[in-house]
Amino acid sequence: MKFILGLIFGALIAFPLAHNLGAGKPLLSNPLESKNLMDRTRDLASDIASETGKSFDESMDEIKKAIREATK
């Protein structure tokens, strides 16, 4: 009986924590809370902008390197 109760209580605690961990949220946040569309869009746009900036910087470095090589 204690074993079954332990499994039930363990599952009740573990499932929300695992859900938060999988969603990339803090462990003790509300697992049922969903972001509104504006927040999700803002986060996505921020991620896209940072990735684009990194790609642009890498491309510029390669172009500068190619120009230096060509003008030697």
Element layout with pairings:
Layout (H helix, E strand, L loop, with lengths): L1 H22 L13 H34 L2
Number of domains: 1
In the predicted model, the low-confidence regions spanning at least 5 consecutive residues are: none
The succession of helices and strands, N to C, reads HH
Largest sheet: none
Quick structural overview:
The chain has 72 residues and is mostly helical.
What does this molecule look like?
The structure is a single chain. This protein is mainly alpha-helical. The protein has one domain. Helix content is 78%, strand content 0%. The protein is built from 2 helices and no strands. It has helices spanning 2-23, 37-70. The protein is elongated and about 80 Å long. It starts with a helix and ends with a helix. The mean pLDDT is 87.
Give structural attributes.
elongated, 72 residues, mainly alpha
